[in-house]
Specification:
13 helices, Leucine-rich Repeat Variant, 0% strand
């Protein structure tokens, strides 16, 4: 456990640097650590791994520190750093896979905003696809994150990128449709929770300002499910 703790502390210190080259080394080190966990994920023995156990502690939760990297990377025009932003998304998705409880950090508006602001800061299609995929991982099975996403203007930000008339955006459009399938679930069918539930119609109203045909799209998506 102590070796894992030291490794996580090292990664966190690298991610918190104000120098991009040091942050990048932290991302690479984290990628290496997560890659080593893949065999454990495949054989179902990941839960009691020291890395996962330490994610329940404030000092060693990597996801909360990774969020701080987004703002600095997204504001750069450097192509290499944009690629690193995609790496950052992939790593966060991996962290949420091995430690789903880390989703709780996005109950805080500030952390949710850090992810959503990337949608405003770049027009790179590959980065946008990866950030929408990350949003899906964040809200999946967590109604508190649904509400946080909504409070932070996530519906408007995502739907602004949805353009069915632009063939160059087809892959991004497909990813946003994937997001919509997750977001527009019937919340009443979920387990009881203290979190306020919203109907599909209520959520559609949040999407409608940026996509007037949302009700028609929902009908088409429902047809696909039957």
């Amino acid at each position: 456990m102590s070796d894992t703790s030291e490794t996580l502390t090292d990664i966190i210190e690298l991610l918190e640097s104000d120098k991009h080259e040091i942050v990048v080394s932290g991302l690479d080190k984290l990628e290496s650590v997560l890659s080593d966990l893949v065999p454990l994920i495949r054989n179902g023995s990941i839960e009691n791994n020291p890395f996962v156990t330490l994610q329940d502690t404030f000092d060693h939760n990597i996801a909360s520190h990774l969020v701080s990297v987004y703002d600095s990377l997204a504001k750069e025009e450097d192509e290499d750093l944009l690629i690193r932003l995609i790496q950052c998304n992939t790593l966060l998705q991996g962290l949420l896979l091995v430690h789903p409880r880390s989703r709780v950090i996005f109950h805080q508006n500030s952390n949710m905003k850090a992810i959503l602001e990337v949608l405003d800061l770049t027009s790179d299609i590959d980065v946008l696809i990866s950030i929408v995929s990350t949003i899906v991982h964040i809200i999946l099975k967590d109604l508190d994150n649904y509400r946080s996403f909504e409070r932070c203007g996530g519906c408007i930000k995502v739907m602004r990128k949805f353009d069915l008339t632009n063939q160059a955006k087809s892959d991004l459009n497909y990813k946003i449709i994937e997001f919509l399938i997750v977001y527009l679930i019937d919340e009443e069918a979920l387990n009881p929770t203290k979190t306020q539930k919203k109907s599909i119609s209520e959520k559609a109203q949040l999407l409608e300002p940026e996509f007037a045909e949302i009700h028609h799209l929902i009908a088409n998506l429902n047809d696909l499910k039957t």
